[in-house]
């Protein structure tokens, strides 16, 4: 008991120090030509797109690098009133889950799709922790195309990590929980007996990108933190950092920090996929939503799935799919270098960085060089699989990325710094302070087989005194470093929207020419599309009223509507007839308990409105679209229930007249 207390104190002391210490010389460490290196002249483009997780905002932010300019915020897991994402009828199904409509998410990690270990610029995958989900974004439109829920999982943190040809996206659970087909109404203290971990393999269609859960691995109850795929020689393997091998279910800060070493779980995913394909495993009941956005109908659909194929740990062990590599002190990041020869573990509470050799791992597996077993899974001998340890790198290593010259860069949360070291020799080459408490860091292309190098961004949790103060809540911050020389050079601080975790960068020229500029109105197959002003109409069916409207510079058709009654349920189906780049119109109705719509050229969007006052209700375009934007408006006349005011509508000469 005494020992637990002591460890607890140490942990708290380390964590306390993150708020207590402030690096010396914190003000400015930039050299003379830093401004030149980040200056992107007006009208010019940045060299890289950085897709940055929004954390508890649930969204993804896109920054230009090296300027640090915020280019766009992409709505994914949270409702977004600016675009109507999650408010329009077409997008609401994207938020469906087995728990019903979930309007918010916690977004941490991103994976750009890869072909042969290199970024191919097709899709971006994103995880959601809280209600476990994985999203896929289409990089020709920068929009969310698909969201799949992950059953038997809780706190989807070790996610989404992809294989080097985007065959699979994996999702490891943070919390172990009872599986859905088991009785979950059990004492929490029965964690060790009744809880399980899950690692989910989502298959990605190579043409369409469509996701489908292929199988799940059911594992002993531990916490999975992060992962990365192998590449080159280690292609075909995944490496998952694993903590809480103590199986604690209360006060984890103490109870899950007992063991000197936790594990990195090495998974031969090709073998696991073969097992699943060969009819091994069992189907278990599990409810999860699969939501797909159709770019032609401009409409999302949600399908509830009801079972999943599960591979149990015994059959995985027997087939040689899973092995543990001991890793010091609650590992967080598990990162694989560009050659695929080395796996870097980062123990949150460790003061060294272990680097594992894939070749040695395979040898240890062949030799059955085990330290023992943990819940039936062979634990490989630490010294047998170790390439070496980086000694005294800093305190609290979290994440590592790589450049193209054999160097690794590791973020240190507790000691607030980025440390550069050589992957072969394990020598520390350089260290630079960060302001403050860096979580993830990103090297351009830094988790691929061919990093671009050149830039590194540290994503910081605490910005404290770096910007003008804004009351008790301060924003998070990024710091850009030039890593083209031997020494890292700080170039720029820039504040962020949301909370940054992981981010990935892709060369701008890889995707800038693939961007869609409009939606072809002729290809619009929405059931509610209106392709010309002549086709606008209003259809009443009992108390449901469907209004088929169009928007074009600078009027709304129809802009005079009468005959709506209290008790009606009104649907505005609004089509933007424009076919020019960058010409959205907006649509908002006074007093509506909803957001606006943002309707892109060629698109149809539906806004639901339940009128609750008798009178004249204005509506208007919210997006400043031309010199006469302020003229783009209209009125709805709302009458009492049962009124005999007829349904009449029109614009201009067709507007309803006095009677
Ligand atoms: Cu380190 Cu959620 Cu990737 Cu944040 S995690 S820092
Ligand atoms: Cu259309 Cu403003």
Helix and strand topology:
Layout: H1 2-20, H2 34-38, E1 48-53, E2 60-65, E3 69-74, E4 96-97, E5 100-101, E6 110-115, E7 118-128, E8 133-138, E9 143-149, E10 158-162, E11 168-172, H3 191-194, E12 197-204, E13 211-219, E14 223-229, E15 237-243, H4 252-255, E16 261-268, H5 269-277, E17 282-294, E18 299-311, H6 313-318, E19 322-328, E20 331-336, E21 342-347, E22 352-357, H7 358-366, E23 370-374, E24 377-380, H8 382-385, E25 386-391, E26 397-402, E27 407-412, E28 417-422, E29 428-433, E30 438-443, E31 455-460, E32 477-482, E33 489-495, E34 503-507, H9 508-511, E35 537-541, E36 544-552, E37 555-557, E38 560-565, E39 569-576, E40 585-589, E41 597-599, E42 604-609, E43 615-620, E44 633-639, E45 648-650
Parallel strand pairs: 13-18, 36-39, 38-44
Antiparallel strand pairs: 1-2, 1-34, 2-3, 4-5, 6-7, 7-8, 8-9, 9-17, 10-11, 11-12, 12-13, 14-15, 15-16, 16-19, 17-18, 20-21, 21-22, 22-25, 23-24, 26-27, 27-28, 28-29, 30-31, 31-32, 32-33, 35-36, 36-37, 38-45, 39-42, 40-41, 40-43, 43-44
Structure description:
- This protein has nine helices and 45 strands.
- By secondary structure, the protein is mainly β.
- Strands 6-7-8-9-17-18-13-12-11-10 form a ten-stranded mixed beta sheet.
- β7 and β8 form a beta hairpin.
- The N terminus is likely disordered.
- Bound molecules: sulfanyl-(tricuprio-$l^{4}-sulfanyl)copper (K7E) and dinuclear copper ion.
- Dinuclear copper ion (CUA) binds next to loops.
């Amino acid at each position: 008991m005494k020992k637990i207390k002591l460890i607890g104190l140490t942990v708290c002391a380390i964590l306390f120090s993150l708020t207590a210490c402030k690096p010396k010389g914190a003000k400015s460490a930039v050299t003379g030509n830093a401004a030149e290196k980040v200056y992107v002249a007006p009208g010019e483009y940045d060299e890289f797109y950085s897709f940055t997780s929004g954390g508890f905002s649930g969204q993804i932010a896109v920054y230009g690098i090296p300027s640090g300019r915020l280019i766009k915020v992409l709505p994914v897991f949270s409702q977004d009133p600016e675009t109507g994402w999650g408010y329009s009828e077409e997008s609401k199904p994207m938020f469906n889950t087995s728990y019903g409509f979930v309007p918010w998410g916690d977004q941490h990690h991103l994976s750009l799709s890869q072909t042969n270990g290199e970024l191919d610029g097709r899709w971006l995958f994103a995880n959601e922790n809280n209600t476990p989900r994985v999203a896929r974004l289409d990089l020709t439109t920068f929009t969310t195309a698909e969201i799949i829920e992950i059953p038997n999982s809780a706190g989807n943190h070790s996610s989404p990590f992809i294989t080097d040809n985007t065959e699979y996206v994996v999702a490891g659970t943070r919390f172990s929980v009872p599986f859905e087909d088991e009785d979950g109404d059990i004492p929490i203290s029965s964690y060790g007996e009744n809880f399980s971990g899950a690692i989910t393999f989502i298959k990605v269609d190579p043409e369409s990108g469509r996701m489908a859960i292929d199988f799940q691995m059911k594992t002993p109850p531990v916490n999975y933190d992060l992962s990365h795929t192998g590449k080159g020689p280690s292609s075909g393997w995944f490496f998952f950092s694993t903590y809480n091998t103590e199986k604690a279910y209360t006060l984890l800060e103490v109870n899950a920090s007992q063991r000197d070493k936790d594990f990195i779980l090495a998974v031969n995913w090709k073998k696991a996929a073969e097992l699943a394909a060969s009819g091994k495993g069992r189907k278990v009941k599990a409810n999860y939503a699969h939501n797909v956005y159709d770019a032609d109908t401009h409409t999302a659909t949600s399908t509830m799935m009801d079972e999943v194929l599960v591979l149990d740990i015994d059959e995985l062990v027997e087939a040689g799919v899973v092995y543990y590599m001991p890793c010091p002190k609650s590992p967080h990041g598990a990162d694989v270098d560009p050659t695929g020869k080395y796996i870097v573990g980062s123990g949150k509470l460790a003061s060294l960085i272990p680097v594992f050799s894939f070749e040695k791992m395979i040898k240890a597996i062949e030799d059955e060089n085990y330290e023992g077993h943990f819940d039936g899974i062979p634990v490989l001998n630490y010294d047998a699989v170790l390439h070496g340890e980086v000694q005294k790198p800093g305190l609290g290593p979290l994440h590592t990325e790589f450049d193209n010259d054999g160097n690794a860069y590791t973020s240190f949360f507790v000691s607030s710094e980025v440390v550069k070291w050589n992957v072969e020799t394990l020598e520390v080459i350089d260290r630079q302070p960060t302001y403050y408490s860096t979580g993830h860091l990103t090297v351009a292309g830094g988790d691929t087989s061919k990093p671009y190098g050149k830039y590194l961004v540290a994503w910081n949790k605490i910005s404290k005194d770096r910007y003008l103060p804004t009351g008790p809540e301060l924003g998070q911050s990024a710091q850009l470093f030039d890593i083209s020389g031997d020494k890292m050079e700080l170039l720029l601080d820039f504040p962020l929207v949301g909370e940054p975790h992981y981010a990935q960068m892709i060369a701008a020229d890889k995707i800038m020419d693939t961007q869609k500029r409009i939606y072809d109105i002729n290809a619009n197959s929405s059931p509610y599309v209106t392709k010309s002003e002549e086709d606008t109409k209003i259809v009443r069916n009992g108390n449901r009223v469907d209004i088929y409207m169009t928007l074009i510079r600078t009027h709304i058709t129809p802009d005079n509507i009468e005959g709506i009654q209290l008790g009606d349920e009104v649907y505005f189906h609004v089509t933007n007839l424009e076919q020019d780049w960058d010409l959205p119109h907006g649509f908002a109705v006074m007093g509506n308990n909803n957001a606006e719509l943002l309707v892109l050229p060629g698109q149809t969007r539906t806004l639901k409105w339940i009128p609750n006052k008798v009178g004249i209700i204005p509506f208007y375009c919210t997006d400043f679209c031309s010199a006469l934007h302020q003229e783009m408006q209209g009125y709805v006349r709302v009458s009492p229930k049962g009124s005999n005011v007829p349904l009449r509508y029109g614009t201009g000469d067709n507007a309803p007249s006095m009677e």
